[in-house]
Specification:
This protein has 79 residues and is mainly beta. It has one domain. The strands form two sheets. Strands 1, 2, 4 and 5 form a four-stranded antiparallel β-sheet that branches. The protein has a two-stranded parallel ribbon with strand order 3-6. The radius of gyration is 12 Å and the shape is globular.
Length: 79
């Protein structure tokens, strides 16, 4: 979990989203994505979709400039 933000963060990319166990992601600095105005297009527990907002490789930032809206997953994910 700690390596993911620095591995996927590119200039201009702010949030990293994780859909998974709600007891795991918060230990790595993730918060419910709904706090940033991000929600899934499918039924899922709010606390299971988490986000970490970045301002550069490995750096946490505030919510300013974070895209808001509804996300969807490819059909292969089955949701």
């Amino acid at each position: 979990m700690r390596a993911v933000p620095s591995a996927v963060c590119a200039p201009g990319e702010h949030p990293v989203l994780v859909l998974g166990r709600p007891d795991h992601s918060p230990r790595s600095g993730f918060a419910p994505a709904s706090r940033y105005g991000i929600k899934p297009s499918f039924e899922w527990a709010d606390e299971a979709m988490t986000a970490l907002v970045l301002d550069g490789p490995g750096e946490q930032a505030g919510p300013a400039g974070v895209p808001r809206g509804t996300i969807s997953c490819p059909a292969a994910f089955g949701v």
